[in-house]
Amino acid sequence: MTECKTGQGRFLEDFKVGELIVHATPRTVTTGDMALYMALYAPRHALASSDDFARSCGLGESPIDSLAAFHFVFGKSVPDVSVNAVANLGYAEGRFFEPVRPGDTLRSESRVIGIKENSNGRAGIVWVRTRGIRGADETVVEYVRWVMVRKRDAASPIPEASIPELRPSIAARDLHVPAGLDFARYDFDVSGDRYALSDYSVGERIDHAGAATVEEAEHMMATRLWQNTARVHFDATLRGDGRRLVYGGHVMSLARSLSFSGMANAQLVAAINGGTHANPCFALDTVRAWSEVLEKSETDNPSVGALRIRTVASKGESRQAKAENGKYNPDILLDLDYWVLIPGPGSMPGQSNPRR
Amino acid sequence: MTECKTGQGRFLEDFKVGELIVHATPRTVTTGDMALYMALYAPRHALASSDDFARSCGLGESPIDSLAAFHFVFGKSVPDVSVNAVANLGYAEGRFFEPVRPGDTLRSESRVIGIKENSNGRAGIVWVRTRGIRGADETVVEYVRWVMVRKRDAASPIPEASIPELRPSIAARDLHVPAGLDFARYDFDVSGDRYALSDYSVGERIDHAGAATVEEAEHMMATRLWQNTARVHFDATLRGDGRRLVYGGHVMSLARSLSFSGMANAQLVAAINGGTHANPCFALDTVRAWSEVLEKSETDNPSVGALRIRTVASKGESRQAKAENGKYNPDILLDLDYWVLIPGPGSMPGQSNPRR
Amino acid sequence: MTECKTGQGRFLEDFKVGELIVHATPRTVTTGDMALYMALYAPRHALASSDDFARSCGLGESPIDSLAAFHFVFGKSVPDVSVNAVANLGYAEGRFFEPVRPGDTLRSESRVIGIKENSNGRAGIVWVRTRGIRGADETVVEYVRWVMVRKRDAASPIPEASIPELRPSIAARDLHVPAGLDFARYDFDVSGDRYALSDYSVGERIDHAGAATVEEAEHMMATRLWQNTARVHFDATLRGDGRRLVYGGHVMSLARSLSFSGMANAQLVAAINGGTHANPCFALDTVRAWSEVLEKSETDNPSVGALRIRTVASKGESRQAKAENGKYNPDILLDLDYWVLIPGPGSMPGQSNPRR
Fold it and tell me: Taking the CB of residue B182, how many other CB atoms lie within 10 A of it?
């Protein structure tokens, strides 16, 4: 008799607060991944599109989009954390450090920081802090997420609830501005629009132009690229209705790409304060997005400003995320609270750069 | 009250003859883009497939397919030129210069060279000369196109019509042969067929074998790769029938790939004399193509010949592009008149190259 | 009158035993191809995912998956060997040599080693030994396949049957272990599971977790990436039912990716002993797989073991490949007999590598 080699993944009773889970399959990022990100999401931010533009901003060759780095790191955690998840409940304390570039090898690990059994005894919530690592031990992305996970056996005892304290948002002073980033001679001629930090007002709403109808082949190719193994994205026989669930991060990247319209200079994501996948997304849904400016801040780097944004993605006509009863409208897909880096007061919109 | 940051793009009254429009989002080309071009179009021309073959032709590593360069440059112009277009009416004076290679960063700009209001006063035609630029100011592709664009307001006055004079075709002597290109020791053993310039006759018709059924995910991935933002390609809610329109350039690349059958040695496109997207293409259309030889020419480089080709792509059974009344048959998608570079009299078909 | 330039490919009477067919279109492999392989198949074997992992195994940067090398080489042979094939009947004597890496240029040639006309005189079987070649003349993959090919003219005489003798399997001692491959300090922490050669037993069955529902866009993109031109994969008008046939190799790669669950350390394919595409695969089929261990062996390299595996892919619920009458069950897609390389007795599962 041989051991069963095809694990079913962790259930609620398999998580221990304090445990460190090292995730499988390190991944070297390539320009091939960047091309696929282009083909799947249509991002147009110049920093991740043009090596020359990235160099003119004090960086080397173009980094991958911040959210692509997030997806790589997230994907690795799925087989260990959420393969038996009922729902991905939220994110907090997400921070992005030095950008990820082609040639970097990423791996990922998660610390269990909280567990709470549901009152029905059949499932519970697990909180993990996941870290994306480059080289020996450099953190490139870090975030907390919590998921509802089934129990293998309702009779299993679960230790007393341990709920982590999480910050409602990352403070502007705690944002990481990449080393060398310099928007002082930012080329507004080719960046897509001329809006810098000072052009945005707290409370302002931006209805992004454009919309994206999702295809099965697209969301599956994206989700496989991140080596995310959650079966519900790939197996049409799992649900009664023959549909495959679109990975929530796919909607995040679609929304960020749509947000180029009105926020073309939001070149890097610096933090994710919180996020909710309010309703499931399926193939043939048409995704739209709007954003609201929540907060503005300068950084230690005078050429770089920070904008805290709430971006809402919808598959319908709702103009508000929530109904009067405080619940999300049924066509709302995503409600994401995050910080972006954008040219600040020390950038000079009037100046053009002959070399783009 | 804040400024509306999400522009609707230019309407007819926003174009001025003589104006130079600098398009957004420079783009560094990568081998990832080349792999996607392979996966989406199945080109088999050896020059863009094998670095060794390209080197044996006097070039460095493989350039991207000429039409991929065209699509990159075209895509950038869409948000400024044709986002409010009713129709893409034609191309002229398209010329290709030194090939584009991975690592090159492309940007794009368009000069408005003509405007003519329609008699109904609701729309009009705009002519632009678009230029793809590498580095400081090297033109890699250049072409004129004209589009019908809506007016924002029918009451807006439009200056007197200004219609540019365009050459019906690029003369063979004006074709650019890339520096160093040398078909003298061309490896016909692995290029796909043995036909050189002398094997083609003016008037000859070639019915390319093969056919390609188009999928939504494919044409959208391609069109996003070019950062072409025309909403009609991506948003199933725009038209009454729930269909997304396939980017006309997608059909151009499909037709060129099909044309490998019978024209395997047409390694580079040197010019686009004219082109018409005769009818719209939609997902699930099956594209076929045939070509006619319009003109033959030697070039200053004895190993390189030029063939002027008319390639017609169809989604049906028509054997002729036009009906007796001079109108395109309803299944005709594309009618493209262009020059290709092909081994000329100074190439030696008998010789094999040990290294491919 | 000009020669018809668009060949219809070889029919049975066009093959001569002993003939060498040089296939068209050499192909430089890139990291773009690797990214697409990720996006299309979701492989998670660390060796082909992480340059750092590959280096820690004594190789340079990550090689492409063994089956990707097989598909490139196979694809080139299609226009010459199987474009008029009725069926791809089998494989034998497949061997993989030094791994293929980005930057390598592959070409392919086939020797005709057998022909046998069917008793009905309308078709027959052709055996070819196909070789994938890098550089001047280094074999990277080699295999025999046989296909049933139509005759152009039933009246054409076919020489007496010549049937090659083929080995039922490659002997373990004939497997090629790549130069420098070293699993002595193999990083089981991030490879996905802890099973080495000694953990598998002959006769053991592994039911791989996961399933993959196939989309038209996906299998066509993959098959085009290999420059495989068989029209039945791309043209919805060919069959009466409007469906496109999925390339058999697509199912091989899906099955190998699914087999990560339970065989995460099977980093390289060393040989293909035999393979049958038992039933056709179409879009929207959901592919599952299980494996049986057929044979185990050490190699000359003490850190590297060899496992002979039979992997069966199914689109239904069958738990056995064949029914009692010896015929394949109708939901069985693939029955593949192959050798993989896996950490052997000289690898040290207890040791962790600080650098992944």
Answer: 18
pLDDT, tens digit (0-9, with 9 covering 90-100), for B166-224? 999 999 999 999 999 999 999 999 999 999 999 999 999 999 999 999 999 999 999 99
What distance in Å separates residue A34's CA from the closest CA in chain C?
A: 9
Half-sphere exposure of B212 (CA within 13 A, CB side): 32
* Under 8 Å between Cβ of C310 and C335: yes
CB contact under 8 A, A42 and B224: yes
C327: alpha, beta or left? (left if phi > 0; alpha if psi -120 to 50): beta
H/E segment holding residue A183? none
C-alpha distance from residue C148 to each of A47, B217, C35 (Å): 53, 33, 34
* For range A269-288, the mean pLDDT: 97
Identity of the residue numbered A15: F
Residue B85 to residues B8, B9, B12, B233, C168: CA-CA distances in angstroms? 12, 10, 9, 13, 64
Quote ipTM for the complex.
0.95
- Closest Cα to residue B147, out of B94, B78, B97? B78
Q: Mind listing the pLDDT tens digit for each residue in C159-216? A: 999 999 999 999 999 999 999 999 999 999 999 999 999 999 999 999 999 999 999 9
Q: Which of C2, C35, C238 sits opposite B35 (nearest CB)?
A: C35
pTM reported for the whole predicted model: 0.96
What number of CA atoms fall less than 13 Å from residue C75's CA on the CB side?
30
Q: Give the separation between CA C281 and CA C71, rounded to whole angstroms.
A: 17
Q: Where are the alpha helices (DSSP H) in A226-334?
A: 248-258
Find chains touching chain B: ≥3 CB pairs under 8 Å. Answer: A, C
Element (H, E) at A228: none
pLDDT for the residue A60: 94
Average pLDDT, chain C: 95
**What single-letter DSSP state applies at residue C315?**
S
d(CA C259, CA C279): 20
Q: How far apart, in whole angstroms, are the C-alpha atoms of residue A65 and residue A266?
A: 11
User: What is the dihedral angle through the alpha carbons of C256, A105, A260, B9, rounded to the nearest 10 degrees?
Assistant: -70
Q: Parallel, antiparallel, or unpaired for β B212-213 and B286-298? A: antiparallel
Q: Which residues of A touch C199 (CB under 8 A)?
A: 2-3, 5
The span from the CA of B80 to the CA of A189, in Å, is 13
Contact criterion met (CB < 8 Å) for B225 and A354: no
- Distance set, CA A348 to CA B107, B137, B192 (Å): 21, 23, 54
Report pLDDT digits (tens) over B259-298. Answer: 999 999 999 999 999 999 999 999 999 999 999 999 999 9
CA distance C278 to C331: 9
The percentage of chain C sitting over the pLDDT mark of 90, rounded to a whole number, equals 92
B56 sits in the region (left: phi over 0; alpha: psi -120 to 50; else beta) called: alpha
Here the tokens at position B43 are 């080109």
**Subunit contact C31:B34, Cβ cutoff 8 A:** no
Give me the half-sphere count of Cα atoms (radius 13 Å) on the Cβ side of residue B167: 13
Helix (H) or strand (E) holding B130: strand B123-134
Distance CA A321, CA A334 (A): 9
Question: Which residue stretches of B86-215 are H helix?
Answer: none
